[in-house]
Design a protein that fits this description.
The chain is α+β, with helices and mostly antiparallel strands and about 110 residues long. Helices cover about 30% and strands about 30% of the residues.
Amino acid sequence: MGDIEIRDDRAAGRLEAVADGEVVGRIEYFPLDTPGRALVPVHTIVEPAHEGKGIAGSLARELYAVAAREDSVVAPLCPYVVRWAERHPDEAPAAGPELIRAAEEWLAAHPERF
């Protein structure tokens, strides 16, 4: 496997890890504007043949970097991203409970999205 490229497909709500032209992993997310700006990851998926190579962690790290560049935060609903953030508090500032609640409410109101 060659180098991993991570690209943000904002229109589709996916941060994708690409190797040799093939999407090998992704974080599915949605942007939230109220009560504050946030990116909300819902699922992290790595293709079975590529598991154990650090792809999910690279995706999580890049999601937090994208949010920081956009003066936004990450409000994780994805269990993997929650655990990653707990292990990397210096790279993953915590979102407030109000923002997490708003993200959960948005997701509950849009079950067809994921």
